[in-house]
Specification:
By secondary structure, the chain is of the alpha+beta class. It has one domain: Gcn5-related N-acetyltransferase (GNAT) (Aminopeptidase, 3-Layer(aba) Sandwich). The chain has 5 helices and 7 strands. Strands 1-2-3-4-5-7-6 form a 7-stranded mixed β-sheet. The protein is globular and about 40 Å long. It starts with a strand and ends with a strand.
């Protein structure tokens, strides 16, 4: 597996990957339609922020996007193709995001995650620090997680 910088022309491909990855948690069409605005990888994210792609023999297996804002980094996205879950790809992408953030002077990284991913992020040293309302109706909240760098 190789990690490389994501290219802005990959935005549509990465959006499709994110949708497949999210669906792997068992979310239905109604839910996915509601969260779609948060699933789109905009070209500007890849131009203005830092995207990393994990690939093997030219196939994209996952990606992460980090935004640096002063001393704080935001892990905007981290998604892996469902058939490659639990193979260390997400961990490698996360570690690359941490390295990038540290190298840019960030002292903390946070994310607004899917409730199903809390255990994964906790296993990497993040802690839940709060909740944020989801764009999905019905009182659903998203965990806010952070790690000191």
């Amino acid at each position: 597996m190789n990690l490389r910088r994501a290219r802005s022309e990959e935005a549509e491909l990465l959006t499709a990957l994110a949708i497949r990855s999210k669906r792997a948690w068992g979310y239905g069409d109604d839910f996915m339609e509601k969260v779609m605005p948060d699933m789109i990888v905009h070209r500007r994210f890849l131009d203005e922020e830092h995207g990393t792609v994990a690939e093997l023999e030219g196939a994209v297996l996952g990606y992460a996007i980090v935004k640096i804002d002063g001393k704080e980094a935001l892990l905007r996205d981290l998604f892996v193709e469902p058939e490659h879950f639990r193979k260390g790809i997400g961990k490698s992408l996360f570690e690359e995001a941490l390295r990038f953030a540290r190298d840019r002077g960030a002292t903390r990284m946070k994310l607004f995650g899917d409730p199903n991913a809390v255990g994964f992020y906790e296993s990497l040293g993040m802690q839940k620090i709060g909740d944020q309302p989801s764009i999905v109706d019905g009182g659903r909240t998203l965990p806010i997680m952070a790690i000191e760098l």
